[in-house]
Amino acid sequence: MRSFALFSASILVSIALSAPAIAEGAPDLSPLACAWGKLPDAEQTRLREEFKVELGDGGFTLHFGTATPSETMEAARACQLTLAAPQLEHLGLALSRHAAEEKARKGIADKGEKPDSISVALEKMHEGKREMIGNKYGCPGSHTSVSEWDESVKGAVRRANLRFKDGRAYAWVSLGLYTVMAQEGAIRRMSGKADAC
What we know:
- By secondary structure, the protein is mainly alpha-helical.
- It has helices at about 1-20, 30-40, 40-50, 70-80, 85-110, 115-120, 125-135, 145-160, 170-190; strands at about 50-55, 60-65, 145.
- The protein has a three-stranded antiparallel sheet, with no helix packed on it.
- The protein is globular.
- The termini are far apart.
């Protein structure tokens, strides 16, 4: 019996060591919040306006704005963030995705619903998918939807049981989930906790 217990333990250890890395959870976005607050109003407005959603055959493409490197650097400096050039680039990507989240929050509010519904639904996302989506959408450029990921986002919104009176707000919540996950991916990469794009 004892040899069986030792054998089982050794199998479990080898399985654990060979298994893929487990999702680490959401990164701390407070440096991003600080940097966003230090951006000039004109830069914030431009980033919000540059964010577009292009609808296609059964999917969509997200087009994020591009943060101005000098503004990003000044915001990082004002927040006492010491970042190398590649890290500043990822902070800029996170800022553009934060602007997109703000646009989604406004869309929810304009429908008479609560913008914090994004956070409620985000808690219902599968951690592994959340990290995978965030790491991809936190990369530079535009991003086309992936049907499997879209189903995960829709499932999280359903599980959040938001009970909106205006059903049009649900699309804004889904969009908000993508933008927050994208921020998380960019910040993970800025912190050296995600593979290169």
